[in-house]
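Supplementary notes for students who missed Thursday's class. We covered one full example, reproduced here. Read the sequence, then the structure, then the short commentary at the end.
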Amino acid sequence: MDYRNYPYSFPYNVEGPIMDERIFPGGGGGGGGMPGFPPGFPPGSPSGFPPGFPPGQGQPGGGQQDGPPSSPPPSFTPQMQQQASFGTFAVDPGAIRGCLRRFTFIWLENGRSFWFFPTFVGRTSVAGWRWRGFRWVFYGTDLNRIRSFQCY
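Structure (token representation):
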């Protein structure tokens, strides 16, 4: 397949960036950033914010562009609380929203667990900073992949 003309292909090919209405409505050819990315992307580009969200104005839904915590998470590993098993349900976004900007321990459906510092909760997903043993890395997941969580 020729990905150069496919409307949803990766926006950079061997001939240069593809910046047209099919991928980035409104263009995206100028205004900072790196070639092949819309203005303001990737993070660390001249503005560091997507178009229409300059610094200080936050993100859709009232979220704010937050960095990682300045300290590691607590040094203990919590035990998951026993829950009645009525089938598979997604975590309610309203419940995990109470954990925004707090150390939160997450248990995923696949059996993995880790410390997390959520900074954004959407209707079906959560994003923030995941502890990787010695540093925080940005991470996001669908709420239906979360088995349980506990914030501290």
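Commentary. Helices lie at 93-97. The chain has a mean pLDDT of 74. If anything here is unclear, bring it to office hours.
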